[in-house]
Amino acid sequence: MENMEGDGPSTAAAAALNQRKHELSKLFQYYLDKSTPHALYRWIGTFVLVSVYALRVYYVQGFYIVSYGLGIYILNLLIGFLSPLVDPEMEPSDGPVLPTKGSDEFKPFIRRLPEFKFWYAITKAFCIAFFMTFFSMFDVPVFWPILLCYWIVLFTLTMRRQITHMIKYKYIPFSIGKQKYRGKRPSASPRSPRAD
C-alpha cells in the first residue's frame, strides 16, 4: 500500500512533465512549419548563427576539432542536397528517373535531402557546436592548419566526384529562377491566299 501511495505523486509529476514536453514540441513544430515558406529569412538567420559561432571560435582560439567535425557533417549534408533521390548508378528504378538524352521526357530534379531539411540540419548542427564551445573537454589541442588542409582536400575530392556524377547523368541540382508559363507565342500571320 505504501508503494501505491509513493507512485501516485511521481506518476502525476511524470505525466505533467510529459504533457508540458508535448506542448513545447507542438509549439516548436508550429513555428518551424510557419518558417517553411520563408527560405531567405531562414538562411539569413543561419548565417547570423554561423557568424556568431565563427566569432566565438576566433575569440577563444580553440575548439578546432569541433569545427572540423562540423565541417565534415556539413559536407555530408551538402552531398545529400546535391544528389538525386534515386541515383541511377546505385539502383535502377521503375519510376521516374533522370533524363539521360535530350529526347527524354523532362523529369524534375528531386533531392535526396530537401532544402528545408538541409537548412534545419545545418542550423541544428551549428547550435550544438556553439553549445559545445562552452565545455573545455571538447577543446582538444590540435594543429588547426592540418585540419583545414585535410578538409579542403576532402571537399575538393568529394565535389569532383559529385560534379562528375552530374555530368555523367546530365542533371543540375539547381533551378535558376522559377519557370513561368508564357502562353502561346504570337506567330507570323499566315499569308492569305490570293483571290483569282
UniProtKB/TrEMBL annotation:
Gene Ontology cellular-component annotations: cytoplasm; membrane
Xref: InterPro entries: Rer1
Keyword match Glycoprotein: no
Keyword Lyase found: no
Residue stretches spanning the membrane: 40-59, 65-86, 142-159
Family (UniProt): Belongs to the RER1 family.
Biological role: Involved in the retrieval of endoplasmic reticulum membrane proteins from the early Golgi compartment.
Swiss-Prot/TrEMBL keywords: Membrane, Transmembrane, Transmembrane helix
Membrane topology recorded in Swiss-Prot or TrEMBL: Multi-pass membrane protein
Record's protein name: Protein RER1
Organism annotation: Forsythia ovata
